[in-house]
Amino acid sequence: MFYRDRARQAEADADSAILDNVRDRWARAAKAWDEMATRAEKTAERRSVNEEAKAMAGEED
After folding, report:
1. What is the pTM assigned to this prediction?
2. Helix 20-60 × helix 2-16 angle, to 10°
3. What SS3 class is residue 55?
């Protein structure tokens, strides 16, 4: 997934950063990307459940 890939890259950049402020910036970016990935996964899961429920409701009609 795009967001997880970006989070891993930001973590790698943080690990290789020499300056503390740069390392902190990359660590914050990694956390943000990871949070976005979690939200995207939850959204996709909810969408799937909703679509399945709609399909089941359509079959009952």
Report:
1. 0.82
2. 170
3. helix
